[in-house]
Amino acid sequence: MRVKQITNIDGFYKSLEKCRGRVELITDDRDVLNMASKLTQFIGLTTVFSNPDVEAYEIVCYEPDDFQYIKKFLIPVEE
Fold first, then answer.
1. Sign of torsion, CA 36 41 42 43?
2. Domains in the chain: how many in total?
3. pTM given for the model
4. Short-list 16, 12, 34, 15, CA closest to 24
5. 41: domain CATH number?
């Protein structure tokens, strides 16, 4: 899903702990961040979520049921 914002980053991170499969954040520069990693979450927080120049990114769940845990925190890009 193409996302322009995460509404509650703490809630988003807590919901990631419920996910059974891999969840990735992919930037427009094609950087792939594995959101299961605490280090990657920190990097994501400081470089992606707090950077006003980043207008959108992709969130990919490899286990389809995992999307139910994180979807309430995501604001999709309207196309």
1. positive
2. 1
3. 0.84
4. 34
5. 3.30.1340
